[in-house]
Amino acid sequence: MPKDGGIGAPTRRREDYRFLTGRGRYSDDIKTQGECAAIFARSTVAHGTIKSIDTSAAAAMPGVLAIFTGEDFVEVGGNPAGWLINSRDGEPMKEPKRPVLAHGKVRHVGDAYAAVIAETVQQARDAAEMIEIDIEEHDAVVNMKDALAGTTYVHDEIGTNQCFDWGWIEDNRAATDAAIQGAHHVTTLELVNNRLVPNAMETRCSIGHYDTGTGDYTLHTTSQNPHLTRLLLSAFVMGIPENKLTVIAPDVGGGFGSKIYHYGEEALVLAAAKKLGRTVKWTSDRSEAFQTDAHGRDHVTKIELALDEEGNFLAFRTETHANVGAYLSNFSTATPTFLHGTLMAGNYTVPNVYVNVKAVFTNTAPVDAYRGAGRPEATYSLERVIDMAAREIGMDPIELRRKNFIKPDQYPFASAAGLEYDSGNYDALMDQMEKVADKAGFAARRAESESKGLLRGFGVNAYVEACGIAPSNLVGVLGSRVGLYDAATVRVNATGNLSVMVGAHSHGQGHETVFPQVVAEMLGIDPGSIDIVHGDTSKIPFGMGTYGSRSLAVCGSAVVRATEKIIVKATKIAAHMLEADAADVEFKDGTFSVVGTNQSVSFGEVALKAYIPHQFPIEDIEPGLEETAFYDPANFTYPSGAYCCEVEVDPETGKVRVNRMTAVDDFGNVINPMVVTGQVHGGLGQGIGQALMENTTYDSDGQLLSASYMDYAMPRADDLPFYTVDHSQGTACTHNPLGVKGCGEAGAIGSPPTVVNAVIDALQSGGKNVTHIDMPVTPHRVWSAMKNAG
Amino acid sequence: MAKVSMTVNGTSVSREVEGQTLLVSMLREDLRLTGTHVGCDTSQCGACVVHVNGKAVKSCTMFAVEADGAEVSTIEGQANADGTLSTIQQAFQEHHGLQCGFCTPGMVMSAAALLKDNPTPTEGEVRAYLDGNICRCTGYHNIVKAIMAASGQDVSAIAAE
Ligand code: FES
Ligand code: FES
Asked: How far apart are CA A146 and CA A381, in angstroms?
């Protein structure tokens, strides 16, 4: 039994009180005396050359304080890509400048070319409408294959729409080709991983403040990683020294990746605050969010799977076109490459893997990491082609997967795609999935559906992903321009309570509850006496933020290391108080005692002593009790899972309903099972949304057709079932102190192929020879596929 | 400008507002009750749900002047007088019905309106009622479970911690 509030306990979240009573503090809730408002003038065309911008009428409007255009930022730097990818021929990727405001050209609908600062939002909005822009329109580059074939360039100065042409692993190419050439059977599938909009319910908001007395800047912003935003603003975009810039992300209303990145609006409000000596606030509306938040996925892939007579996998070969949009967002070059290609061996002992990814500029919003980031794309391609192969060779899809699974005694396992998996047990996950999903009862449920005139399908999936992003040494070799460690400071206050400063930043994950569980367990004290401080660069040592299911695996490990240092120092102080040798002092359940005696002091007494160091050996021990640790992981972590779902398809209308969804995941050790289950639920909701409903559509002119909740179908409560979630089969991560792997993205990775596999199974059961339908599997697509199959 | 008077969470307030000021703006900007959120501009997401004369209303879809003389309650008024959580709020915490918390005020206000009209809704009725409330974090499982639990139903058979 876990201790109440300790590791393994489903502790209820302390942050809930403020959220449930309307006392949360999100960026837009902040109102400052004397603040003014920023509104952006955005392009309504997808592609064009800016001939002139006339701001004179706008400037004369009531309340207008300043107007900025791209001209004002020519001198400042561009917002850079965080990873350098080299093409197969060794050439570095093309990296056109991403300016604060469009200059020379507008490159997607929503591209901001001017900003108006006025006393009120309404005044700024009215004035922005008076800005006259003369644009010479060009053909929009929308479709990726056309983009590579054509001569209209999103960025004229690079003379191509190809950002890079990447091969992974180039040395495996010939062997992979040969394996496919000589194989007994090859299954080939062309598929689309549909473009999604992350749609955190809180839109982005940025508030710039400049202290005219000290020259200090403060940015409040909706961010998953305020330190990275500060670093980018300091080192690349604005050149504001880090010691003069504080970035604060208060409560953040969801992110799913879209709030990792630095956006131009953040630079604009800081520049405007400095120019005006006023606080400048901008809050995105939902249609701006659709047009300008980084989108996700958008891959077009051809995948081949080669098998021998027995069904052993011989090779996977993929060719992917990945849309990066009009500009490179911060992680956009890592997402389709190292977060995708390296996972293309999946859970399997397959000896040959080769991945080719061409990244393509288009006149669309930037595309970057969205929940899962590259790994959902990898899993979808693999698990769809495996299902198709099973059908082609007449083998049960679960049996085919099991036949090729890495076995528990093979760890550490060097995958053919270049990663070393540390632990896992895929057969145990599959066993548990078959059990908790009552697979045995499927036939009866199918018969019941059929009696209602519905087709019922069973879909299955196995995934492995790379989380705990990331070992700096490894990612440095792979092209990352930053380190991906994390940091924590544990401050024991004189009265024995604790403030723990962490570099991770919760945007719904419950860090304020979960991190104290770890520290409370280690120190044997009441978790209620421990508070987390996060989201403020002036208060925390450093941090790389929250994404890639890294908070606990990386930052949590830093918390453990800092707490260990606290215990070491506190033991020394206790030894002094007990007049014993530190080696003889044992720390257990919040008490330091001299082994073999009844002499002891409590953790609280030691804390007090540290701050009131009377009769203190100052030559050996410094006063105070505060420790910082940076933790850089030795490897990625490798969560894995076995998922299944059952769908009902109405053969009359093509409507699909998911009515059973089971997720069995290996997250290693679990600190708070309630929070972990909630994370899986959220991922499942988004994954089912991707599979059945969500799609981002640009027309051939580059107009965004799905730019509001009326046009972009996101799951509502009525579209989703209750889920069965199980994480009882965890195998501990072998290289971090908590043995944890990360759980934030799993649901969104494992569910899309599960759903599509189930739909195909349902249609096949009804005698329809449909082998693939692209996501979203809408009623129209299902109905058309059935019709075409005759 | 027009003078608008109303009772908000039991307190009488009046403010001079523009004719086109939305109720949600008056609550957030003028009264500084920032628990009511704005998640969209097309009246789709329900982050802004409040009660006006006992009925659930999307406060982004109503002008402040239309609420003149009304009794308005918001998320800030839902807890018990001693500050402890109401039954619905408590159920959301107990069943982890919130993550980032942004949709939560609207969810709680919608749930309260539902349970007033339908004290023991089925799963299907809860899901159907939440048609106008989007949550991007929870996949809805725990929200539906929390609302059913708040209605006094036994939810122990619904999976999870
Ligand atoms: S703000 Fe979205 S419905 Fe009111
Ligand atoms: S809890 Fe984040 S949107 Fe519902």
From this structure: 23
Contacts of B105 in chain A (CB under 8 A): 22
Q: Is the pLDDT of residue B161 over 90?
A: no
**Angle at which helices B141-150 and A673-692 cross, to 10°:** 120
pLDDT score of A1: 66
* B63 in any annotated domain: yes
A/B interface, count of CB pairs below 8 Å: 192
Residue with tokens 């302390």: A14
Instruction: Please give the pLDDT value at position B160.
Output: 55
- Calculate what percentage of chain A has a pLDDT beyond 90: 97
Tokens read off for A655: 């409507």
Question: In angstroms, what is the span from residue A5 Cα to ligand 1's centroid?
Answer: 37
* Average pLDDT for chain A: 97
Both B46 and B108 in a single domain?
Answer: no
Predicted confidence (pLDDT) at residue A282 exceeds the cutoff of 70: yes
Tell me whether residue B8 is exposed, middle or buried, using C-beta atoms within 10 angstroms of its C-beta: 0 to 12, 13 to 18, 19 or more.
buried
Identical fold for domains A16-22+485-631 and A299-470+635-788, yes or no, is yes
d(CA A83, CA B4): 55
- Amino acid identity at A71: E
What is residue A689's predicted lDDT score, i.e. its pLDDT?
98
Calculate how far, in angstroms, residue B39's C-alpha sits from the geometric centre of ligand 2: 11
pLDDT of A470 reads 86
Report the top-level CATH class of A31-138+201-254+259-292.
alpha beta
Residue B57 confidence class, pLDDT cut points 50, 70, 90: very high
Give, for B142, the enclosing helix (H) or strand (E).
helix B141-150
Question: What span, in angstroms and rounded, lies between the C-alpha atoms of A756 and A345?
Answer: 20
Residues B72, B110 share a domain: no
Residues B93 and B69 placed together within one structural domain of the fold:
no
Amino acid at position A474, single letter: L
**Closest atom of ligand 2 to CA, residue B39:** 3
Number of domains making up chain B: 2
> Does B137 sit in the ligand 2 pocket, CB within 6 Å?
yes
Which of the ligands is closest to the CA of residue B62?
Answer: 1
User: To test ligand 1's pocket by mutation, which of B23, B38, B63 has the most ligand atoms within 8 angstroms of CB?
Assistant: B38
CATH topology of domain A299-470+635-788: Aldehyde Oxidoreductase; domain 4 (3.30.365)
CB contact under 8 A, B37 and A15: no
> Using a CB-CB distance cutoff of 8 angstroms, which residues of chain B are in contact with residue A22?
33-36, 74-76, 78, 105
User: Residues B19, B72: one domain?
Assistant: yes
Q: B98: CA distance to ligand 1 center in Å? A: 18
User: Which is nearest to A273 in space by CA: A208, A341, A329, A318?
Assistant: A208
Ligand 2 pocket check for A24: Cβ under 6 Å? no
Q: Is the ipTM of this complex over 0.90?
A: yes
Is there a single domain that holds both residue B70 and residue B116?
no
B30: domain CATH number? 3.10.20.30
For residue B52, give its domain range: 2-76
Nearest to B26 by CA among B60, B75, B70, B71: B60
Does one domain contain both B45 and B97? Answer: no
Q: What CATH number does residue B127 fall under?
A: 1.10.150.120
Residue A725: band (very low, low, confident or very high) from pLDDT cuts 50, 70, 90 = very high
- Rounded-to-integer distance, Cα A336 and Cα A339, Å: 6
pLDDT in tens, A195-207: 999 999 999 999 9
**Domain-wise residue ranges, chain A:** 16-22+485-631, 31-138+201-254+259-292, 299-470+635-788
- Does residue B22 lie within any of the structural domains? yes
Strand partners, A710: none
**Do B49 and B72 have their domain in common?**
yes
The answer to the question of residue B116 being in a domain is yes
CATH topology assigned to domain A16-22+485-631: Aldehyde Oxidoreductase; domain 4 (3.30.365)
Q: For the sheet containing A640-649, what is the strand order?
A: A455-464, A640-649, A656-666, A723-726
Q: What percent of chain B has pLDDT over 90?
A: 96
